[in-house]
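Backbones bend. We report:
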Amino acid sequence: MAIDRSHPKYAHVDRRLQAEPIIWLSSVRPDGRPHLVPVWFVWDGESVTIFSQPNNQKIRNIRANQNVCLALEAANEGEDVAILEGTAEFITMDATAPIQPAYMGKYQESITEMGWTPESMMASYSQPIRVTPTKLIAW
């Protein structure tokens, strides 16, 4: 799903997706309970890429059910909300090569502050997830 950037509200969401440091990923546990976690991400204009440690809860959830939601922090006292419904898929690290420079540029300071190098961070967070939005809800 491409965001219609000609519409001011959606252009604003697109800018937030490019700039915000955290997005909330909601997935569903195999027993039906929700699982919600903040994650680092990069938006390429059509999809969101997240790097995860392998075999954690969100990975197990997505293996069982690819339907997810993403939400940016509510801003402007709840008047600036962006929620993306979509499907998640596991991709290879090679498939992320075009977005890795943007991801590292966005999080380089945080990666350094945590005592990691880009290489050590990517070695630990070695399972890329691509979320393709199917619906945007914004106000």
Observations:
- The radius of gyration is 15 Å.
